[in-house]
UniProtKB/TrEMBL annotation:
Species annotation: Zopfia rhizophila CBS 207.26
Family: Belongs to the short-chain dehydrogenases/reductases (SDR) family.
Entry protein name: Oxidoreductase YhxD
InterPro entries cross-referenced by the UniProt entry: NAD(P)-bd_dom_sf (IPR036291), Sc_DH/Rdtase_CS (IPR020904), SDR_fam (IPR002347)
Single GO term (MF): oxidoreductase activity, acting on CH-OH group of donors
Keywords: NADP, Oxidoreductase
Length: 308
């Protein structure tokens, strides 16, 4: 029978998800594109102070898209602290966030490679993989994280073809172009990780374009997991629930809407980016040799999303 002292000692190593970030006041900047993380009145937690590396990715070489902010930024911090050499892609307009991240990591002696550019350009995507491979000395982790959503809107009759194309080209085509180029140079044991979304499992009103594109991404993860097994390359997806990142104000959410919505979530709050980063590290870990074609849902127990 465990003593009271041993239970108490064990409990000190646990983190209660109900109270974690409970003192963080959610506050979104105005809707825009792109929204910078540095403009958040209350900054998202991307693990700057809390993520501790254990050398799990020592010697690995990663390209992470959308790596300047949000989940991408958290993944960059986590993988870099785990020992990986990291290159990031982001839009040129997001340079201020990339500057902030590079300066922050430089204080720890970590240098990241910055490769800005627009993923809507098929030719650029091919060049991006080539540049990353050359700069990193190889490539064995690809994180297709960059994403786009239209403005929250439940009326399908008002969706434009231009908006639909932009969302699909960002969320689906860009990852396809990057993966197509990357598999030509990735050795056996490499890992490709896509950011999917929990909307695939839990339908959400008002994001028809985003939800449809993420459904396509989920299918790609599964089919590529099968086809790339012959090359020894694993493919997996992370499906976040609503997360406190720049994609929220980009999609038209206000602080008021977010706070009202959060009260209906099981943990009464959205996820913070740092809570997603460990999943990307897990999928990249070289010992996860039989994990492929899977989608890991990180939704805090939510079963549906309705904005009002």
């Amino acid at each position: 029978m465990a003593s009271t002292n041993s239970v108490s000692t064990q409990s000190q190593n646990l983190i209660d998800p109900r109270t974690r970030f409970s003192d963080l006041e959610l506050s979104l900047p105005p809707q825009d594109f792109p929204v910078l993380q540095r403009d958040f009145p209350t900054k998202p937690d991307s693990g700057e102070r809390s993520y501790k590396g254990r050398g799990r990715l020592t010697g690995r070489r990663a390209l992470i898209t959308g790596g300047d902010s949000g989940i991408g930024r958290a993944t960059v911090i986590a993988m870099a602290r785990e020992g990986a050499k990291v290159a990031i892609n982001y839009l040129p307009d997001e340079e201020p966030d990339a500057d902030d991240l590079a300066s922050f990591l430089a204080k720890e002696g970590i240098q990241i490679i910055r490769l800005p550019g627009n993923l809507l350009d098929e030719e650029f995507c091919a060049k991006l993989v080539s540049k990353a491979e050359k700069a990193l000395g190889g490539l064995d982790i690809l994180v297709n994280n960059a994403g786009r959503t239209g403005v929250l809107n439940d009326d399908i009759t008002t969706y434009t073809t231009e908006q639909w194309d932009t969302v699909f080209r960002t969320n689906v085509y860009a990852g396809f172009w990057l993966t197509r180029a990357a598999v030509k140079c990735m050795p056996p044991g490499s890992s490709i990780i896509w950011t999917v979304s929990d909307v695939v499992a839990n339908p959400t009103s008002g994001v028809h374009d985003y939800a449809a594109s993420k459904g396509a991404v989920a299918s790609l993860v599964q089919t590529l997991g099968i086809s790339l097994a012959s090359k020894g390359i694993r493919v997996n997806g992370v499906a976040p629930g609503i997360t406190y990142t720049p994609i929220l104000p980009q999609g038209g959410l206000t602080t008021e809407i977010l706070n009202q919505f959060a009260q209906g979530l099981p943990l009464r709050r959205p996820a913070q980016p740092v809570e997603l980063a460990p999943v990307y590290v897990d999928f990249a870990d070289a010992t996860m040799t039989y994990t492929s074609g899977g989608i890991w849902s990180n939704n805090g127990g939510a079963t549906a999303y309705t904005f009002s």
